Amino acid sequence: MRLSMIVATVAGVALLITGLSMPWLKIPLILSFCYGMAALGIGVLLRAGQISFGHAMYACISGYVVAYLSSHFRGLDGALLIILGTLASIAVGMLVGAFVVRYREIFFGMLNLAISMVLFTVLGKFYAYTGGTDGLRVQRPTLFGFELGRTEFESALLVLAVILSLAVIWGVQRYFRSSAGEALAAIKTNETRLEYLGVSAKLLLWQGYVLSAGLCGLAGSLFGLSQGLVTPEMGYWLRSGEFVFIAILGGSGHAVGAFVGALLYEFLKMYAAALVSGAWQMILGVTLIVIIYFLPKGLVGLLSERRKALRGDA
Amino acid sequence: MSKDILILALLDGVSYAGLLFLVALGLTFIFGVVRILNVAHGSLYACGGYAAATLGLWLGGGSLGVSLAALIGSSIVVGIVLGTLLMLLLRRFQDRDPILQLLVTFGAFMIFEDLQRMIWGTQPYFVADVVNQMGTSEVLGVIYMNYQLLFVPGAALGVYALLQWFLNRTLMGRQIVAVTHDREVATAMGINAKRIAYLTFVVGAMLGALGGALASPTTSLVPGIGADMIVLSFAVVATAGLGQISGALITALLIGLSRSFCVYLYPELEVVMPYVIMVLVLLVRPQGLFTVAQARRI
Known about the structure:
Chain A is mainly α. Helix content of chain A is 77%, strand content 1%. In chain A, strands 1-2 form a two-stranded antiparallel ribbon. By secondary structure, chain B is mostly helical. Chain B contains 12 helices and 2 strands. In chain B, helix 1 packs parallel to helix 6, helix 1 (3-34) packs antiparallel against helix 9 (193-215) and helix 1 packs antiparallel against helix 11.
């Protein structure tokens, strides 16, 4: 799979150059990378055959942590904020994960949804701390010690997003190929057999869950910094649905899939929303059904099948 | 907490539980047979409500009989039309991963959501003729509408009794139960599982639409009610245990009552309450309150 990493790097750099030379593309590109990381988190769970309709909660937690720290502790660096935001999600993911990994399929999905709805409501109601439905502003921090203006800050975030995305793709792909990652996929195929091998399916799923929470948290931290505002809407279940949509669109066969899906999604949104206003959800719905019907393994499945066919070992 | 508020909360809760039960019943009934958790059930609720309001406006709502006919007629029509559409769609995905099937219904839900907006717009609809026609009565010093006091809970209990009778006393119902237990064996015994699945789907869809139709006179119909309802009825179904009909009745009552008490006592927690109950229940009983243990399949 080294070839795919090279292709991903070249594509990432190409996107970076495009973004830097066409400033209006900067924010959509940063958002696509954020969505990609979050969808990759969902992809990890999809490999285990589990689906979560609540992972936007982690993006939301990290976003709020970044926003809160950026305004209450003014000196903190942007890079540190991202790390702290992601750590917050990982910590919550560890706690929630310990509880939800006992459940499978629809119960797993529903519990995540329920917990995210609780958070969503709490954020909306406790105005004094969270700013209610108006949300919290993120004060623009320094980035690696540099005070940056708005445009430079966005450019720097884009660079950071590309680097982080590539690192995440590489890391998650390593994880997929590791014994823990391969065993995770076995939860989907046959959990009982996995247990007979002496492997704890709960522990495996917990590791995967914490990883997915961390990925969504990383996405949320970056998202918060680039938007300058976090609202409870970030954690609403329809947002989690978007993550799932992107993960399915891209496919969970390879870590790159989530990012391919996210780019396509973001640009589909840009053009479709302008072209036919009011039918955006319908377009998404039709796309989802068509993708599942023709490409159950997502866009990445399409690529890997072609490669297999070329090598002649399909 | 005064006595009046206590009674109000109780009555509100019972009436709300009635609606919740009807919608959750449809969801759990479909799941039992087809093994698909139908996210588009929220659209059925919303479409049922809108159709009832439109039909009510069109017929003019001259008398109580006409208003009731509008409510029931519209839910039957919506159930048959949308239920058939969904079933035809899902048949194409029959042997796929259950998660992908779930996502297909999610896709269908998104399509319906925009269709609704195109047909009925974003302005709230509110047709309350039937509520006025039924009048009010006094319960322990509190004036309450007969529609919510008697009709909605009565309809829910009626549907529950009818369904129990149908499942336990008729041939068709027994066949549905058989397919729920083991589809392969039931098919081997000569039951047409495909027809049973279709029937179940339409009945479940009608229940969802009926829930919406009965809610339409007392809630204003706006885009997004389908999404709220699907999440809530999921919570009821998961708390009760998937496929549990009597369990859904008790759980709907539990969630309906606790929600309405929240509305009067701690309005901040109103939206969270159902989820808190669900999480607490699943912590103790991972398969839901009323599920019997199932054999592990290897």
